[in-house]
Structures are given as C-alpha cells and as structure tokens.
Amino acid sequence: MNKIPLTVHGAALLKEELHRLKTIERPAVIEAIAEARAHGDLSENAEYDAAKEKQGFIEGRIQEVESKLSHAQIIDPSSTDADGRCVFGATVDLEDADSGQAVTYQIVGEDEADIKQGKVSFASPLARALIGKFAGDVVQVQTPGGQREYEMIDVRYV
Fold first, then answer.
1. What is the Cα–Cα distance from 27 to 77, expressed in whole angstroms?
2. What is the pLDDT of residue 1?
3. What is the Cα Rg of the chain in Å?
4. What pTM does this model have?
5. Exposed e or buried b per residue across 106-115, where buried means at least 16 C-beta atoms within 10 angstroms of its C-beta
6. What is the Cα–Cα distance from 95 to 115, expressed in whole angstroms?
7. Is 9:74 a contact under the CB 8 Å cutoff?
8. Bridge partner list, 143
9. DSSP sequence for 95-117
C-alpha cells in the first residue's frame, strides 16, 4: 500500500478517533450485545442484530483507521522549506479573477478535506492546479461550473 499523506493535525484527529472507537464505542456495543442476549431467543431479536451490525461497523472502522495510520506519511507544513512554492500542507490565499473574492485553502490529505473549513484534498483539481506554483502566479482550474481563474496572493506554511 502506498503512503497516505496527512498533516500533523489530520493524524491527531485519526488517533483521537481510534482512541474513541476502542475505549468508548467498542465497550458500549459489547455491552449492548450482552444485554440483547439476555433477552432470550436470538433468531428474532432485533436489538441483538442491530448491536452486531454496529459492532461490525466499529471493528471495520478500527481496522481502516489503524491501516491509514500505519501507512501515514505525516507532513508538518511549518517545517517545510518549499521556497514559497505551494506544497502539501500549505495554506494558500487566492483571489478569484472574475469576482475579486478572496478565499483561503489549506491543501490536506483526502481524509482531512472539508471545504467548509477551507481544507481541500491534494487530489482535487484545485489543489493539483496550485501545487508547485508561487505567490503572484495565476492558475486556471476546471470546475464543474466551468473554467475558473485564481491569482495566488500568498503561500503560508502554518
């Protein structure tokens, strides 16, 4: 399996989720299964079926998160020396060439991406257009709404 790029913050969030799944969610579902078993006949016990299904989901998610963390390449943008170039983890201030609207995005891993928080996946068309460019460059991005043009105002490694 290839390395999965994550920011330090993204890795911390995954570790936090793994801890919660193992210490809170897993014991709660085990208790729910035991309680449902106590009700008798398992063949027609909806609570038991639901608890077993939830247990399967939790165990699957634990394996998924552990796998991601074991294959993670944690990148700290503040220790990156990219000479002003846009790289993974960088925070970029952009200005839309058409509307003049200013936007700020951080380029993050796929699991961390959340457009509402200004975090875009490194695999997104916008991030692919930005990576390798410098402040002052103009980039064109093909979006579902058509071609967009942005001027890179600043690149920061926070």
1. 36
2. 58
3. 22
4. 0.81
5. bbbbebbbee
6. 16
7. no
8. 146
9. EETTT--EEEEEEE-TTT-BGGG
Which of the 8 DSSP states describes residue 124? S
Per the DSSP assignment, residues forming a β-bridge with 148 are 141
The structure tokens listed for 85 are 């170039």
Closest CA to 18 of 69, 94, 81, 91: 69
Specify the pLDDT at position 22: 97
Q: Indicate the Cα dihedral angle 87, 91, 96, 100, nearest 10°.
A: -150
Q: Which position has the token pair 């257009």? A: 129
Paired tokens of 5: 């790029």
For the stretch 57-67, pLDDT in tens is: 999 999 999 99
Mapped onto helix, strand or coil, the DSSP state of residue 156 is strand
Are the C-beta atoms of 109 and 7 separated by less than 8 Å? Answer: yes
Q: Which two tokens stand for residue 100?
A: 């003049």
What per-residue confidence (pLDDT) applies to 19? Answer: 97
Task: State residue 38's pLDDT score.
Answer: 86
